[in-house]
TrEMBL record:
<protein>
    <submittedName>
        <fullName>Magnesium chelatase family protein</fullName>
    </submittedName>
</protein>
<dbReference type="InterPro" id="IPR003593">
    <property type="entry name" value="AAA+_ATPase"/>
</dbReference>
<dbReference type="Pfam" id="PF01078">
    <property type="entry name" value="Mg_chelatase"/>
</dbReference>
<dbReference type="InterPro" id="IPR045006">
    <property type="entry name" value="CHLI-like"/>
</dbReference>
<dbReference type="InterPro" id="IPR000523">
    <property type="entry name" value="Mg_chelatse_chII-like_cat_dom"/>
</dbReference>
<dbReference type="InterPro" id="IPR027417">
    <property type="entry name" value="P-loop_NTPase"/>
</dbReference>
<comment type="similarity">
    <text>Belongs to the Mg-chelatase subunits D/I family. ComM subfamily.</text>
</comment>
<dbReference type="InterPro" id="IPR014721">
    <property type="entry name" value="Ribsml_uS5_D2-typ_fold_subgr"/>
</dbReference>
<dbReference type="InterPro" id="IPR004482">
    <property type="entry name" value="Mg_chelat-rel"/>
</dbReference>
<dbReference type="Pfam" id="PF13541">
    <property type="entry name" value="ChlI"/>
</dbReference>
<dbReference type="InterPro" id="IPR025158">
    <property type="entry name" value="Mg_chelat-rel_C"/>
</dbReference>
<dbReference type="GO" id="GO:0005524">
    <property type="term" value="F:ATP binding"/>
</dbReference>
<dbReference type="InterPro" id="IPR020568">
    <property type="entry name" value="Ribosomal_Su5_D2-typ_SF"/>
</dbReference>
<feature type="domain" description="AAA+ ATPase">
    <location>
        <begin position="210"/>
        <end position="372"/>
    </location>
</feature>
<dbReference type="Pfam" id="PF13335">
    <property type="entry name" value="Mg_chelatase_C"/>
</dbReference>
Amino acid sequence: MVAEIKSYTVLGVDAVEVTVQVDAGRGLPSVAIVGLPDSAVKESRERVRSALINSGFPFPARKVVINLAPADLKKEGTIYDLPISIGILFSQNIVSGRKLKDYLIAGELGLNGEVRRVKGALACAILAREKGYKGVILPVNNAEEASLISGIEIVPVKTLTETVAFLNGDLTIEPFKREGDFRESKFDIDMADVSGQFHAKRAVEIAAAGGHNLLFFGPPGSGKTMIARRIPTILPLMTEQEIIETTKVYSAAGLLSEGVIDKRPFRSPHHLVSDVAMVGGGSSLKPGEVSLAHNGVLFLDEFPEFKRSVIEALRQPLEDGMVTVSRISGTVSFPARFMFVAAMNPCPCGFYGFEDDVHQCSCSPVQVKRYLSKVSGPILDRIDIHVSLPAVKPDELSKMECGETSASIRERIEKAHAVQRERFKGLKISFNSHMGSTEIRKFCSLSSDAKAILEKAVSTFRLSARGYNRILKLARTIADLEGEEIIKSHHVAEAVSFREVIKIN
């Protein structure tokens, strides 16, 4: 009799149902795994054999054929150890088949029969609910992330023996239920740590309120990185849906050590990062940095030092909030809706345009131009806010006020987010920065004075259509922070002030 156990595989960040078929028939004792398995799946033969024997179960002296269907879909990882073991035991009439059709089963096996964590457990739980399964049987270390999905049973198991006893009805395992609220707001850093730079902190508040992208431009030591690292502290707490989306990405990437992602991600890759590491892909089509920053912040320090191909690869995620990766093994789409923050110096030495009594620029005009040209116009055009940060002298730091705490800034941002949620109710967008031309025409009503200032800005800065729309979206956010329905002249003026153009004299 052929055993059929339902499991899954991860494709991108989503789970796809896989049927594990096990047939123990006549022939020389052997184990064959078919259905496009990778090396980790093929090695499950030895793990399963040792786990069964060390758990007190017999291993059949027969020809065992294991098929992972659909056979044209590549299977990866150690997900199938547990379902293969259950299939082998079912073929020997050791496991009852009454519950097998009700659950998706996944887990890696240790040689002693211990059931270990697998990746993609949250996606598995989502798939089980969509397909109408009663629940999932997963390693106990995956139970917390899977419990984010309601409406199904999350059965946590520690060993192969425990799994068999549950399936046979000899053991009752209480479905895992998450307790309390995962959301957390404690940080070791605070925006009040930053002395001075009030213009930059105002820019950060506006960017966080509307989900806008941000570029810091200034000499070394002006506080660009310090401010950027404190942006997550002023962002509102993650909603349950955002926790699910973000945890799903980390789970699919195999980066979820325990629990769930309940703090907004802050990703700051080194400038030597590769194209694939940034946008995702590779032989196994894993999510990259832009997806790991989903619902959080992607910070690129020393922006011009990144490879040109890496910088240009940001165009699609910055515009669409997702990235589509095509490889010979398939095409997948990863979520990539993040707040983009970049920081750059004005030249290789860092002091062009910011000279003082101590620091003088030592770069030639050609070097400066070559350095700044590493960041293309189309990328700069996709960044809503450009901010210059002059260096703060050490003797002035003690005299400067630290300013507001992150908590007080977050209160204003939460109110602006509430306004936007109400405005975009029923639409597929969440923040002002996501608006298209249709939403801009509908929601960005300007006063007559504001229209005049905007028209002058278009001619002065020679803005593209994208730049024009981005000023409108930025002005809409500034008005939301003040609780204004109509965009007024000072809102547009402030928005224009954040569209500084990097020039070479």
